[in-house]
Amino acid sequence: MEDITDIRHLENVRRDFVANVSHELKTPVASIKGFVETLLDGRVDDPADRRRFLEIVGRQADRLGLIIEDLLSLSRVEQAEGMGDLPVEPVAVGDLIRTVIAECGPRAEARSIRLDVECPADLEAEVNAPLLEQALINLVDNAIKYSEPGQPVRVEGGVAGGVLELAVRDEGAGIAAEHLPRLFERFYRVDKGRSRKIGGTGLGLSIVKHIAQAHGGSVTVESAPGSGSTFRILLPARRG
Fold it and tell me: What's the pLDDT tens digit per position in 73-129?
């Protein structure tokens, strides 16, 4: 007898992933095709309508680009995770966080959201800086997107018990308990309509999870409706 439970699970995961990717790509492709066919048929005489159609095509093309970019990022991270040879180096965590804040700052400012930082000046850790920056940018961007104008987003760094903890806290609407176990699945969305409207691909949190795992760590979330959310990346503070 042979236990094929893991094989069946992997087959199901692969099948679900292909189905999800197909669905996510099909929507923008269908939209682009429909508007382009309308334009080619010459049924749009009003210049304003033509411009509106082309703007829609442009937005859908951008969405396709974001999905493909996130899929490639996820593939690269999973490859590094599987090989177990992620290159790391000593990094000043405060500098890394400030780089993330500089990247996300314009989007926060556009929504009147204040970005606060709390991190010891001398905190260092052995990490892959570009990947960890990407993970934090994904979390901070999500916090900005799902916060109301005027609400703060806080990024914290610290070490406790040999664990490097990077936390992103917001005071947004929060997430119901039934969604929390599935938040880090590929393409899982709490509110599909709102997520697509604000530009989410459904892959950002999955990328965060695999970046943490590639470092030998994990990611957690605490949230409740009306209480905001706190996402934590937990990594070994020392290696070797």
Answer: 777 787 776 767 788 899 999 999 999 999 999 999 999 999 999 999 999 999 999
Q: Rounded to two decimals, what is the model's pTM?
A: 0.76
Say how far apart CA 178 and CA 174 lie, in whole Å. Answer: 12
Pairwise CA distance, residues 127 & 43, whole Å: 56
Q: Give the pLDDT confidence of 2-40 residue by residue, as tens digits.
A: 555 655 645 655 566 666 666 677 778 888 888 888 888
